[in-house]
C-alpha cells in the first residue's frame, strides 16, 4: 500500500499528527533559580549570546534576590506536573511525565537522557507557552531538537509536540472565572473609597517580544494575511473570548498592553508598556483596573514582579484601584483541558485517537499539531537555523524509517 502520509512525520497534511502510542510526556518549561547562588548563572543562560547588557542583568537579578534568589516557577511546574499525573491516573492513562527546562535544572538534555534510560522512545512534548512565537513555541522545539543531537539520542527517541493551546477551553476558562472575581474585588475597592461610579478598565497584558519576532510568528502562509502580527492577533482573540464570557465585563473599556521588555533600547519591541498605559488610563479618568495576564500560565516572576510589584505600584501612585487576575496555574479546567489535548494525540488500543477532533473556542484555533514551513523562524547569530522537532521541516526527533 502507498503511504497516505509522510512516514517520517505521521502527518496527515492538514496540520494534524496521526495518533501515536506515546510512552512519555516531556513537560518543557523555562526554568528559574532556586537560591541566591543560582541567580546570575541562570540569567547568563537565559541571555546567552543575545547581547543583553550587564546593567539589565543586574536589574533583573534584583527581582529574584528580593525573593530569596528563588523563582516561583519551578514549584509551579512541579505542582502542574503532579496535577497532570493525577488527572492521567484518574482516566486510567499510563503515561509518565518528565520535566525539563531551557534555562535551569532539571535541564532538558538531562531529562532526555533519563527518559531514554527508562526505556521511553515516543515522547509528546508539552511546552508551557500558549501562543505562537519564537520564545513561546519554536524555542521549545529547538530545545528538544538540539537536545536530541547533543545527547546522541536522535534516531533513538522520537519527539512530537502538543499544539499551542491559546485557543483552548483549558487555557481560557480559568481566566474567565478569575476575571469575575477580580472585577468584584475592584468594585469593592472603589466602593470603599466612595467611588462607586468610577470607571473600571480591563487591561489584558502579555510578554512584550521584539517586533521582528512578532512579525515572524506563525507559518509563512498565514503571517502576511493583513494581520498586525500573529502573536498580537492571537492575544486579541483570547481577550475578546474572555470578555464575551463575562457579563459583568460588558460595556467596560479594555486594552491589550505589554510587559517585561528587555534587550537593547534601539530594537523595537511590542508596545505600549503596561506602566505607560496605566498613566494614560489614569489621565483619561479611569478609576480602577483589572489586569489580566493572558501571556502566562502561572504566577511566576514576570507576574510577581512586573505586575504585582511594578504595575501595582504604578496604580498606587496614580490613584487607580488594582486587582490582578489569577493565571491558570493548577485550575482544574486547565488540568482537564490539557489532558484532553494529550488524548487528542494519543492512540488507544485500536490505534484510534482517544479523543476525536480538535477542541477550540477562540478565533484562530485550533492550532496545528505540526508546525508548518518556516513557523516562527529565527536565525542564530551565525545566520543558521537551529535544529527543531515538531515541524514539517524538522529533521530530528522523527523516526528513522
Ligand atoms: C514570549 C515569552 C514568554 C512566554 C512563553 C513561555 O512561558 O515560555 C516568556 C516567559 C518567561 N520569561 C521568563 C524570564 C525571562 N525572560 C527573559 C527574556 C525574554 N523573554 C522573552 C519572551 C518570553 N518569555 C524574550 C523575547 C526575552 C528576551 C530575549 C531572551 O533573552 O530570550 C529574561 C532575561 C532577562 C530580561 O528580562 O532581560 C528572563 C529572566 C520566565 C521565568 C520567570 C521566572 O523565573 O519565574 C518565563 C516563564
Ligand atoms: Fe521571558
UniProtKB/TrEMBL annotation:
Enzyme class label: lyase
One matching Pfam family: Ferrochelatase
Catalysed transformations (reactions): Fe-coproporphyrin III + 2 H(+) = coproporphyrin III + Fe(2+)
Residues noted as binding Fe-coproporphyrin III in the record, renumbered to the chain: 71, 140
GO molecular function terms noted in the UniProt entry: lyase activity
Keyword terms, alphabetized: Cytoplasm, Heme biosynthesis, Iron, Lyase, Metal-binding, Porphyrin biosynthesis
Cellular compartments annotated: Cytoplasm
Pathway: Porphyrin-containing compound metabolism; protoheme biosynthesis
EC number(s) from the headed UniProt entry: 4.99.1.9
Annotated Fe(2+) binding sites: 207, 302
UniProt cross-references to NCBIfam families, sorted A to Z: PRK00035.2-1
Family: Belongs to the ferrochelatase family.
Functional summary from the UniProt entry: Involved in coproporphyrin-dependent heme b biosynthesis. Catalyzes the insertion of ferrous iron into coproporphyrin III to form Fe-coproporphyrin III.
Record protein name field: Coproporphyrin III ferrochelatase
Originating organism: Glutamicibacter arilaitensis (strain DSM 16368 / CIP 108037 / IAM 15318 / JCM 13566 / NCIMB 14258 / Re117)
Amino acid at each position: 500500500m502507498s503511504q497516505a502520509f509522510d512516514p517520517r512525520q505521521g502527518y496527515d497534511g492538514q496540520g494534524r499528527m496521526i495518533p501515536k502510542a506515546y510512552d512519555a510526556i516531556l513537560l518543557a518549561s523555562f526554568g528559574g533559580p532556586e537560591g541566591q547562588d543560582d541567580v546570575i548563572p541562570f540569567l547568563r543562560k537565559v541571555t546567552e549570546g543575545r547581547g543583553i547588557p550587564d546593567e539589565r542583568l543586574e536589574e533583573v537579578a534584583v527581582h529574584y534576590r528580593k525573593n530569596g534568589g528563588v523563582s516561583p516557577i519551578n514549584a509551579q511546574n512541579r505542582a502542574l506536573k503532579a496535577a497532570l499525573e493525577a488527572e492521567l491516573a484518574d482516566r486510567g492513562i499510563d503515561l509518565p511525565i518528565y520535566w525539563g527546562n531551557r534555562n535551569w535544572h532539571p535541564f532538558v538534555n538531562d531529562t532526555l537522557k533519563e527518559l531514554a534510560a527508562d526505556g521511553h522512545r515516543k515522547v509528546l512534548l508539552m511546552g508551557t507557552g500558549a501562543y505562537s512565537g519564537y520564545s513561546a513555541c519554536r524555542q521549545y522545539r529547538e530545545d528538544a531538537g538540539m537536545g536530541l543531537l547533543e545527547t546522541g539520542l536522535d534516531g533513538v527517541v522520537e519527539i512530537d509536540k502538543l499544539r499551542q493551546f491559546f485557543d483552548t477551553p483549558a487555557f481560557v476558562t480559568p481566566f474567565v472565572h478569575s476575571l469575575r472575581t477580580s472585577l468584584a474585588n475592584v468594585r469593592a475597592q472603589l466602593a470603599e473609597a466612595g467611588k462607586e461610579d468610577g470607571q473600571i478598565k480591563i487591561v489584558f497584558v502579555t510578554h512584550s517580544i521584539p517586533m521582528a519576532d512578532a512579525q515572524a510568528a506563525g507559518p509563512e502562509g498565514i503571517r502576511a494575511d493583513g494581520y498586525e502580527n500573529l502573536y498580537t492577533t492571537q492575544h486579541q482573540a483570547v481577550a475578546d473570548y474572555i470578555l464575551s464570557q463575562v457579563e459583568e465585563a460588558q460595556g467596560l473599556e479594555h486594552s491589550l498592553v505589554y510587559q517585561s521588555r528587555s534587550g537593547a533600547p534601539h530594537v523595537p519591541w511590542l508596545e505600549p508598556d503596561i506602566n505607560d498605559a496605566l498613566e494614560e488610563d489614569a489621565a483619561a479618568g479611569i478609576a480602577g483596573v483589572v489586569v489580566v495576564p493572558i501571556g502566562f500560565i502561572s504566577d511566576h516572576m514576570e507576574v510577581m514582579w512586573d505586575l504585582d510589584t511594578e504595575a501595582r505600584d504604578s496604580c498606587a501612585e496614580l490613584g487607580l484601584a488594582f486587582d490582578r487576575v489569577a493565571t491558570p496555574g493548577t485550575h482544574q479546567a486547565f488540568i482537564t483541558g490539557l489532558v484532553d489535548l494529550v488524548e487528542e494525540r494519543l492512540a488507544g488500543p485500536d490505534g484510534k485517537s482517544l479523543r476525536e477532533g480538535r477542541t477550540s473556542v477562540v478565533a484562530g484555533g485550533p492550532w496545528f499539531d505540526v508546525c508548518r514551513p518556516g513557523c516562527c523562524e529565527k536565525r542564530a547569530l551565525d545566520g543558521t537555523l537551529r535544529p527543531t522537532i515538531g515541524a514539517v521541516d524538522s529533521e530530528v526527533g522523527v523516526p528513522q524509517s
